[in-house]
Sequence to fold (107 residues):
Amino acid sequence: MAATYTRRLGSAQLTAPGQVLLFTADSQFTYVIRDVVAANQSSAAAQLQVYISSGSHSLTVLLESSVPAGTSSHFDGRVALLPGDQVFYNTTAQGFSSCVVTGYELT
Fold:
């Protein structure tokens, strides 16, 4: 059977404003973020952000400052993660919000 090319790297659902770690790249592979979907399931517009923390700096992958209630935002691209890089999801949603990050491993 063929190996899965793209897989879920991390996902989370929050019930209040906050931040959560979705994924940490280990030293076994170079990981590539392929898609990010962040959804605002609360009753008001909210900010949705996914970013990479790499030591002393960060890189924003997705930032939407006012996502309407009941909608989502999508990033489609390719961003390489170095060993130790961490992917975080951050939101100002006053209710439910969720995020999923998919990607693949380079061997």
About this structure: The chain has a mean pLDDT of 94. The first strand starts at residue 7 and ends at 14. The chain has no helices and eight strands.
